[in-house]
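Tutorial, part two.
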Amino acid sequence: MSSRTLPLLFINLGGEMLYILDQRLRAQNIPVDKAKKVMNDIITTMFNKKFLEELFKPQELYSKKALRTVFDRLAHASIMRLNQASMDKLYDLMTMAFKYQVLLCPRPKDVLLVSFNHMDAIKDFVRDTPIILAQVDETYQQLVEIYTPLSAGEFQLIRQTLLIFFQDMHIRVSIFLKDKVQNSNGRFVLPTSGPVPCGTQVPGLIRQFSCAGEEVKRAQFCNSGNYSSALREGSFEMFGDRVIKLGTNMYSVSRPVETHMSGTSKNSAQHTKVNTAPNPLAKEELNLLAKLMGGMEVQRTANADSGFRVNLFATDEEEEQALISRPQELSYDVINIQATKDKQANAELAKIMGEFGATGDPAPTVSSKGDDLLAMMDGL
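Running the prediction step on this input gives:
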């Protein structure tokens, strides 16, 4: 497991979240000023300096529930609210999109190019807001300085860590199904054609060399694919052509996107029960999560804007049905931080509660769409 995986996971999932929200805000005809405020608030929170200082420290990946909690709070960092079914769908789309991108990376190092494609798009979202753009650029520079010197072996470990994280997620996504890159069981279809990875040759030739290093024999074989020569290598600088399109906005052409639990996922979920035995690592993970989220800040406004709800489904009825039909074992809305005996942890959590109140309103009740952190974490 690589200790350098968490920042890449967070940034890429965050980029996918912004793509989806931008598409839905447009589809629901949300006024431009409110839509821009939502995007700016989320990006400001996402690239908060204290938050990123914690994020970039070498550490193991958080559990799926812990990471879902971070994105739940991030999605509600502004005046927009999502019902649980829409939040579930949002997170499913985010994770399956990035899983597909990681699987299709020609080389392990190309995970960084995917991250840069997301960062380029995020910069474009805030191109007219210099203060937020500076925050994003600072993180961009960190990514370049930390990740570009890594070896191919270290990137392979990062890619493997990401695939292990995603291995049990098999949500069917309509875009992938229509493009025939995903099977009906939720598994992705890997291509056996197209350009080979940069630095490699089209398969089909075997060369034999003597002890002196001289080529003595050649033999050809059928590769059973339709491969072409490698494209040029993408730029690993802050500005440049990434060449690969993985990580760019697949929602730029408007088309409906639906998610469905695959049959195999439902069946496997029924046999995967939550382990109620005490986990000795859970306290450390949740303490780290509290510290991580404690660094997030949202700029409060003097005059609170009126909030609005975004629905990721075509109708409210579809949203309600999705919530009812979703297997309980696949819900991520319960994480508990037992901080009652730790005054410092209580202070951190109180800080989280205050900093995530983007609108300056009193903390919402448990039943509201923007659940407060402690209420949302109350069930583990």
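Residues 263-280, 297-304, 333-343, 356-380 have pLDDT under 50 and may be disordered. In part three we will examine how such features are distributed along the chain.
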